[in-house]
């Protein structure tokens, strides 16, 4: 990753504020209280915080961070700009420790919370469905985390066999397009039918492995081809799940190296982050700077709804 660190938005508070204002208000300041566009007076002078506006329609005051994931943060905007840039540009993600170091933040907890807010900005609330006529959507499931431990006489604590206690993820990737990943409670036909039905257009061709639960679901789609991994088959003509497996490869390397133990309640947030970078990758013409700008734009209208845990280290 190369970042143009000489860019003033990463050093100068006024430049950073101008960057956020330009992305959030391309047509002039928008009052977050009454919604009126470009009818605000910039409040200048020592009596006011920098970046404060007063709406001429409703008389309320606001700044660019109101009703965004940055609201009520004490971290300066130029550090936010760098956090967005680092997280948008790093293929495998950035740990809270790394963020703390690079941004010179005072505490691990601030860095952790900041990273989660950026992740929230990256989350697509209602992604457009994948696929369509003539398009192929690869679907696969994977398991994240350590299995529960069980005490085995003579061997001590051992990971339970099987995957029952691991967290389950279903990822759908449109070949040459975007990815949508969903944390699921189980891998029953009913659950997968709901998730896949919501995110994949019925005109699509599905490519999956040979798992039984995909068979009844695949019948609803234009076509369904399965590769038989059990027989050592990884591709048959254009039928393959290599794309979605590649996505899991990146996700798992990121989770292993950077996010040591992901609490179950945060798994979807990490999936959203990896989906965001994948769906806005350079192969699709989205370069680092633009990807960061997209994440910044996504910061509006989102507030974190969960509480920061006392021990933030665990995720
Ligand atoms: Zn207003």
Return the CATH architecture of the largest domain.
Answer: 2-Layer Sandwich
Mean pLDDT: 89
Shape: globular
CATH fold assignment of the largest domain = Nucleotidyltransferase, domain 5
For the record, the CATH class of the largest domain is Alpha Beta
Please count the helical segments. Answer: 9
User: How would you name the oligomeric state of the polypeptide chains in this document?
Assistant: single chain
Strand order of the largest sheet: 8-7-4-9-10
Small-molecule binders: zinc ion
User: How does the major sheet shape up?
Assistant: 5 strands, mixed
Order of helices and strands: HEEEHHHEEEEEHEHEEEHHH
Number of domains: 2
Helix content estimate: 25-40%
What is the strand tally? 12
Structural class, from secondary structure content? Answer: alpha+beta
Strand proportion? 15-25%
Return residue spans where pLDDT drops below 50 for at least 5 consecutive residues.
305-315
CATH level-4 homologous superfamily of the largest domain: Ribonuclease H-like superfamily/Ribonuclease H
N- to C-terminal distance: 24 Å
């Amino acid at each position: 990753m190369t970042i143009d660190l000489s860019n003033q938005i990463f050093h100068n508070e006024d430049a950073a504020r101008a960057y956020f204002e330009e992305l959030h208000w391309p047509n002039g300041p928008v009052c977050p209280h009454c919604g009126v566009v470009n009818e605000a007076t910039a409040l200048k002078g020592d009596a006011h915080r920098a970046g404060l506006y007063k709406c001429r329609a409703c008389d309320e005051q606001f700044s660019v961070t109101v009703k965004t994931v940055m609201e009520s943060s004490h971290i300066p905007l130029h550090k936010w700009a760098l956090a967005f840039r680092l997280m948008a540009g790093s293929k495998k993600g950035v740990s809270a420790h790394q963020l703390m170091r690079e941004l010179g933040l005072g505490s691990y907890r601030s860095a952790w919370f900041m990273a989660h807010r950026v992740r929230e900005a990256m989350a697509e609330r209602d992604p457009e469905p994948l696929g369509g006529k003539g398009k192929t959507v690869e679907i696969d499931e994977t398991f994240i985390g350590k299995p529960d431990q069980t005490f085995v006489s003579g061997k001590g604590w051992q990971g339970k066999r099987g995957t029952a206690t691991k967290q389950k993820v279903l990822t759908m990737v449109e070949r040459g397009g975007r990815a949508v990943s969903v944390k699921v409670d189980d891998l029953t036909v009913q659950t997968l039918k709901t998730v896949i039905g919501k995110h994949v257009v019925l005109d699509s061709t599905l490519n999956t492995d040979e798992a039984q639960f995909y068979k009844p679901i695949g019948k609803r789609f234009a076509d369904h081809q399965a590769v038989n991994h059990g027989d050592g088959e990884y591709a048959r003509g254009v039928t393959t799940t290599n794309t979605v497996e590649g996505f899991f490869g990146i996700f798992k390397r990121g989770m292993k190296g950077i996010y040591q133990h992901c609490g179950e309640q945060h798994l979807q947030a990490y999936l959203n982050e990896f989906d965001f970078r994948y769906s806005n990758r350079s192969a699709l013409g989205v370069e680092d700077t633009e990807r960061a700008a997209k994440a910044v734009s996504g910061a509006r209208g989102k507030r974190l709804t969960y509480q920061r845990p006392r021990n933030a280290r665990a995720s």
